[in-house]
Amino acid sequence: MSSPEIASLSWGQMKVQGSTKTYKDCKVWPGGSRAWDWRETGTEHSPGVQPADVEEVAKKGVQTLVIGRGMSEALKVPPSTVEYLEKQGIHVRALQTEQAVKEYNALAAQGVRVGGVFHSTC
């Protein structure tokens, strides 16, 4: 299974290839996607993305996980989250969301088993 392309991104809205849903925040992995509901793990902009937020995507066998930190990079990524992923041999890229989507789509187009968690507002 390949990683689905992020088909479109604008403030507060993302569309993923193969899904009819419009996401505000989303998780993507080879073969699927779903809404990223911060309430599931109590995530806030600070301290930011927790290991629990990326665990689901990490378990899908990704080689690289791209984190979209928001349009203004308000969403933090603490070292503990990066360490959690790196200990599993997963390369991590945490970028401003527009740049993160470009990076994710480029990797997906190259056939890399890439996953991502993306925040589409601040």
Would you give an account of this structure?
By secondary structure, the protein is an alpha/beta fold. It is 24% helix and 30% strand. It is built from three helices and eight strands, in the order βββββαβαβαβ. The strands form two sheets. A five-stranded mixed beta sheet has the order 5-4-8-6-7, with helices on both faces. The chain has a three-stranded antiparallel beta sheet with strand order 1-2-3, covered by helices on one side. Helix 1 (51-58) packs parallel to helix 2. The longest helix is centred in the C-terminal third of the chain and has 13 residues, at 97-109. The N and C termini lie far apart (32 Å). The mean pLDDT is 97.
Element layout with pairings:
Blueprint lengths: L5 E5 L2 E4 L5 E2 L1 E5 L2 E4 L15 H8 L5 E5 L10 H8 L4 E5 L1 H13 L4 E6 L3
Parallel strand pairs: 6-7, 6-8
Antiparallel strand pairs: 1-2, 2-3, 4-5, 4-8
Helix pairs in contact: 1-2
Short summary of the structure?
By secondary structure, the chain is an alpha/beta fold. The chain has 3 helices and 8 strands. The model has no long low-confidence stretch (mean pLDDT 97).
Radius of gyration, Cα only, in angstroms? Answer: 13 Å
Strand content: 25-35%
What's the tally of helices? 3
Low-confidence residue ranges:
none
Q: What would the average pLDDT be, to the nearest integer?
A: 97
Organism: Echinops telfairi (Lesser hedgehog tenrec)
Protein name: Mth938 domain-containing protein
InterPro entries: AAMDC, MTH938-like_sf, NDUFAF3/AAMDC
